[in-house]
Amino acid sequence: MSEDLSLWHDRPAKNAILDFVKRVCSRQSTQFVPPSQRIAVFDNDGTLWSEQPFYFQGLFLFDRVRALAPDHPEWKKTQPFQAVLEKDWPTLAGFGNKGLLELAVATHDGMTSSEFEQLAGDWLATARHPTLDRLFTDLIFDPMLQLMRYLRKNEFKTFIVSGGGIEFVRIFSEQIYGILPEQVIGSSIVTRFEVNDGKPVLVRSPQLNFLDDNEGKPVGIQQHIGRRPIVAFGNSDGDLQMMEWTKAGDDARLGMIIHHDDAEREFAYDRMSAAGRADRVLDEASDRGLKLISMKNDWRRVYPFEGSCVN
Amino acid sequence: MSEDLSLWHDRPAKNAILDFVKRVCSRQSTQFVPPSQRIAVFDNDGTLWSEQPFYFQGLFLFDRVRALAPDHPEWKKTQPFQAVLEKDWPTLAGFGNKGLLELAVATHDGMTSSEFEQLAGDWLATARHPTLDRLFTDLIFDPMLQLMRYLRKNEFKTFIVSGGGIEFVRIFSEQIYGILPEQVIGSSIVTRFEVNDGKPVLVRSPQLNFLDDNEGKPVGIQQHIGRRPIVAFGNSDGDLQMMEWTKAGDDARLGMIIHHDDAEREFAYDRMSAAGRADRVLDEASDRGLKLISMKNDWRRVYPFEGSCVN
User: Fold this and answer.
1) Predicted ipTM of the assembly
2) Which helix (H) or strand (E) holds A103?
């Protein structure tokens, strides 16, 4: 049975997963859940791939700001653009989600969905992580990939529920996670249907449609799935409400929090981080029945490129 | 092969479906489409079930207005409530979608998603069609159920894309259509996550979130599926943009329009109908490469209760 999660050490986290799957999938179990109701949701940044030194989609936006800056001389003296151009990260962090949104809007307004897909796809295919010097799509967590395959083998449906942009995550979700675009939930900006020169297009507008973070996550789940998940994985305070919503269902539920405590193989951060802050979620995990995953102690490796063999 | 669509007469509509499926599913075909991209979308009202004398969700709203009227004496003199209470349908029709939305908001504000599900579920389990004296969930189109089963057997994913409320359609979509809640797209009102007495709930707010009709349908499809459909079925002008978006894709696409021309077994209506008006869509069908389905001539039966045997 341990073959199923061979990238996980035989510790409580792994055992909790194996035990849960056994309980809900066995027809003899009093906690049996029919396959159509086996919904498992995963945060993306910090849960399925890394998010340091900052959310990767943020790094994409910063590159976009730099690329477009020559056409926008006013950005040199306008926040939050100025902070990006001057690499003044503390100032930028002070603008929070609103600042990022402003960058997203300013750099992608009027673009069609397929133009955005092309642009972000090109970036993902070439841009490299500033310290690890890898493609961002290499920086995915191998034990989580294995976990999702294990759940799907047991007739779970796996969904991403990301604070990041839905159109950004969908560019790589099928190829690197095996998650189809219709199983990605994320933040979005308002999109309009237009016919340009006889050709129908979807055009991105300069306005937030939905912020899929914190209280937004259960709302996004209801909007897209219409059913309460029975499994949720996250890593930061932004995942708390998703955990709360999942755990409040009847019968068996599994909620787990990945703790970034592995400075050697990945990054070590929690309460003070600008990206993926984990403060309340650590304080409340135990009371809420959430189980912690230590990247350092529970995972045999972090990234796929660390090696093709285990043991 | 005709066994697959035995409720359809051997005429061009049926042949177009069988031919399309053969072309996209055969690995030898130049138009082969991998299963993950076999997305088929279906309008609901007038495409999968009836919509006369008015959209069934509208009839539900009218019943709600009548039930709540004793607590709202002001409704006797306030539109659009007055029109509902006086059964003044022409006046109500004049208020259009906006009027219906106002009714929806006034009758369901502050309700949680599960309270709404209970209320609408109770109505669907007991309310009867005003002239056919049947449960509304009996008034589904048997040839369309058979078609959806046929497509799913050929590894298509079937989605509903309805102008009606997403939470309303989900109540019965799995049981009567075999379509899971995560494959239902529809109009929605703003929903908030709240914790009441320690219990997390989703509360309906008095504000439109998304109108999944006309230009909204391609937007809803992009938001939920993230991929252009290759098959679309509809019946009214509200489906035109969904058809346009589907047909504008490369390679093989199938767009079909159900024409309500069967006064004897269902209803006959098109250009002048308050519900499901089909005017532009009939004018433009041929230019847009959309194929018409005549309920009268293409379907061996309309409703499942008409009989268990065919031929």
Assistant:
1) 0.93
2) helix A89-108
